[in-house]
Task: structure prediction
Amino acid sequence: MQHLITPNDFTNEEIVNLFEDATIFNDLQASSVLNGKLVITLFFENSTRTRSSFEIAAKRLGAKVVNLDVSTSSSSKGETLIDTVANLNAMKPDAIIIRHRDCGLPASLVEHVDCPIINAGDGMNAHPTQSLLDLFTIINHFDGKQNGKKVAITGDIKTSRVASSNLQLLPRFGLELILVAPEHFMPLGDFRKVQFLRDVVDEVDVVMSLRTQLERHSQTYYKSLEDFGKDYCVTSDIIGSRDILIMHPGPVNRNIDISDELLADKRCKVLEQVTNGVAVRMAILKKLILQ
Ligand code: NCD
Result:
């Protein structure tokens, strides 16, 4: 049984095949390949894009979706999450999609189920479907010639699960990473690191901005987000007329992560990422449910 817990659960060849399906789904919008299948979503953390994207992806393939309302589920009556998931599994779903604040939780469920588990984000650990849709967006933009292109990831990299999955995945497809952040937002690891975007803006092809994950910080680093934005907001002033793809996984903090002006610029692909997210998740659901 194959699950998706981190991007490393798929080989490069599997990802290339997945993207072929996603390209078809992007045009097709609807199919019946998962008719009669049932998908359960369990979101213990807030979500706008990821949850609705999975639900739309499943429905576009003909599957039924049950969104468990975790605020009224038995986890609030003291049942362990493993027991909750074992009970849901006993109802014979074809996939369980889970988001939880605890790193490693989706991986720990794998041995208690008979269907694929899809990690929709576990704490700071991983967000494999976001990194796959980011990679898909980059590869499409460069028409498959992404090898050697440079991606600057900027913002609160250290506590971002999107960053952690992209740090694993993007180099596997020939992309060079440059991390742009203050010391306290910089992750460990052997990456090229700089303090400001201006230092590398002349050489990068993609800028991926990230939200400051205040909910994961145990101390205050800035007086306010506006204060952080003064140094780290990606603006038209910094990017200028350069041919740079601007990305963000959402939710965007306007004028702190990316300026209003740049969000409205045609080089900014934030909404294209969202569109691609549905197609990539359709391909993932098809692959894992029909394995
Ligand atoms: C991200 C997440 O939840 O990890 N959002 C998303 O899934 N598109 C990023 C974030 O919350 O900042």
